[in-house]
Write a structure and sequence with these properties.
Layout (H helix, E strand, L loop, with lengths): L2 H10 L6 H13 L2 H14 L6 H11 L6 H4 L13 E3 L4 H11 L6 E7 L4 E7 L3 H17 L7 E5 L6 H9 L1 E5 L7
Parallel strand pairs: 3-4
Antiparallel strand pairs: 1-2, 2-3, 2-5
Helix pairs in contact: 1-2, 1-4, 2-3, 2-7, 6-7
């Protein structure tokens, strides 16, 4: 199973997959529980009638793998499009957000941390992180656990590669977000 495919697909499912499931799926990916992720993700998409684009379906196929018992469910997932991103506003940082800034600042190659509030009142941490998938996955899980320690039952953390382009959900949140931390680019030459 591709960790990179899994992380990319879970980023694309933000705002479409229930938050209560999304953070757990990301945690399983970070823990290396690929069989659990491959078994639960297609069923989650079917149960919640979440449609996928052709590119997302290909990512799901990589996540599930060719020999998985869940392989037949990949074809049963509905076709669809992401739809519009929810509305976001700037968020007031709290102790948990400031603690997250310490974690992000201590992560090599991380570029910025922002915080936004979704229209339903949910806080979302946004990180333009390192370019290596393993570090993105690990940072996502670390920040989710940090938010849980600070009492957030359902942590919402979006971490994408610094060299990558955020998805529509992440871009909508980023546009409205409050910046908490950023690393100045290192001059070259």
């Amino acid at each position: 199973m591709g960790t990179e495919s899994g992380h990319e697909l879970l980023l694309r499912l933000a705002g479409r997959c229930p938050d209560e499931l999304l953070w757990r799926l990301r945690d399983w990916l970070a823990a290396g529980s690929t069989e659990a992720l491959a078994a639960v993700l297609p069923r989650t998409l079917l149960r919640h009638r979440i449609g996928l684009t052709g590119e997302e379906r290909a990512l799901l196929g990589e996540v599930v793998g060719p020999d998985s018992p869940s392989r037949r469910l990949v074809d049963a997932v509905l076709p669809g499009s992401p739809g519009p991103a929810p509305e976001f506003t700037a968020a007031e940082p709290d102790l948990a957000a400031w603690a997250a800034s310490s974690v992000v600042a201590g992560t090599a190659e991380a570029r910025e941390l922002l915080v936004a509030t979704r229209s339903d009142g949910a806080r979302v941490l946004l990180v333009r992180g390192p370019d290596r998938t393993a570090e993105l996955v690990s940072l996502t899980a670390t920040l989710q656990r940090l938010l849980r320690v600070h009492g957030e039952h359902v942590p919402r953390v979006e971490v994408w590669a610094a060299a990558g382009t955020p998805g529509p959900y992440q871009e909508a949140a980023r546009t409205a977000a409050t910046p908490l931390w950023s690393r100045s680019p290192v001059p070259t030459g």
